[in-house]
Amino acid sequence: MKCIINRRAKFSASHRYWLAELDEEKNFQKFGLGSRFPGHGHNYVLFVSLAGDLDEYGMVQNLSEVKKVIKGEVTSQLDYAYLNDVWSEFQQTLPTTENIARVIWQRLAPYLPLVNIQLFEHPELWADYQGNGMEAYLTISTHFSAAHRLARPDLNYEKNTEIYGKCARPHGHGHNYHLEVTVKGTIDQNTGMLVDLGALNKVIEDYVVEPLDHTFLNKDILYFAQIVPTAENIAIYIRNLLQQPIQELGAALYKVKLIESPNNSCEVYCSDLPLTSISVQGTEALVTPL
To answer: Out of 57-61, 95-99, 165-169, which region has the weakest mean confidence (pLDDT)?
Structure first.
């Protein structure tokens, strides 16, 4: 029987975004505060995912042995280290979150049946790497607050209440939405980045957070005048807003996850389809209870 197991580990380390071929002004233009000397630090959280068949003892891998491998090959070397100097790979390609995840995979792959390396730089930024050359995934987490009412305009109040329950009440209700935007791209051999992080943050802020924050979605956002603003439809709307501007940054939007409450969340994927072939009516949304 196939199974995936996950092992968590932690390390604290510092790094600096700095290219020797650029002067101070150009490094600051490219990396912002990340270029400051002597660098800055993070409390990294690492998840190592392994896959395999269960053995006679009911395990994919002995987690005690997995722990030793991760400590010996990764955390004991990176903990309280200056990443630019500690591994030779980071002298060739900068130690961004996505590149650290890639190099950790390379260090662990000879010993463990890896399927994913997930590395959190902090709770609102993390990377996933799955062994595909220089391809990686980067996720930004943010939030906005908005109100909505779940009711189809073509149905009466009684029918809407039958379908949507209390969510159909005339004056609506609100949520503190948590949004996760995952992009896919190729890690630059020099900078270690798959996308300009500052530019990506700005796209999400300008296209999603600022327009949606503190709105009544049904009344303030034209799209939802006829389309019921369920979590699924909001996630689809956000996906459609972000695909083109993220593509213009040189990356691809991979997934939008919208967390409506601690009990309900929704994920929509782009499925690598061209923009013209994706329609709201033809999109499937995956709803996941947390």
So the answer is: 57-61
Distance, in Å, from the CA atom of 46 to the CA atom of 119, rounded to the nearest integer, reads 5
Q: Which of the following is catalytic: 121, 260, 267, 270?
A: 260
Q: What is the pLDDT of residues 41-80, one digit of tens each?
A: 999 999 999 999 998 889 999 999 999 999 999 999 999 9
Q: Does the pLDDT at position 183 exceed 70?
A: yes
pTM strictly above 0.70:
yes
Query: Catalytic residue at 73?
Result: no
Q: Which of 40, 122, 173, 214 is catalytic?
A: 214
Mean pLDDT across 125-150: 98
Neighbours of 67 (CB within 10 A): 15
Distance CA 95, CA 15 (A): 7
pLDDT recorded at residue 31: 93
Among 89, 143, 167, 205, the active-site one is 167
Tell me the HSE value of 143 on the side-chain side, using a 13 A CA sphere.
10
Residues 230 and 262 sit within 8 Å (Cβ to Cβ) = no
Place of tokens 């309280």: 80
Return the residue matching tokens 């090959």: 73
Q: Respond yes or no: is residue 214 known to be catalytic.
A: yes
Active site residue 175: no
Q: How far apart are CA 280 and CA 240, in angstroms?
A: 9
Given a contact cutoff of 8 angstroms between Cβ atoms, the answer to whether 229 and 148 are in contact is yes
CB contact burial 129-160 (16+ within 10 A = b; e otherwise): bbeeebebbbbbbbebebbbbbbeeeeeeeeb
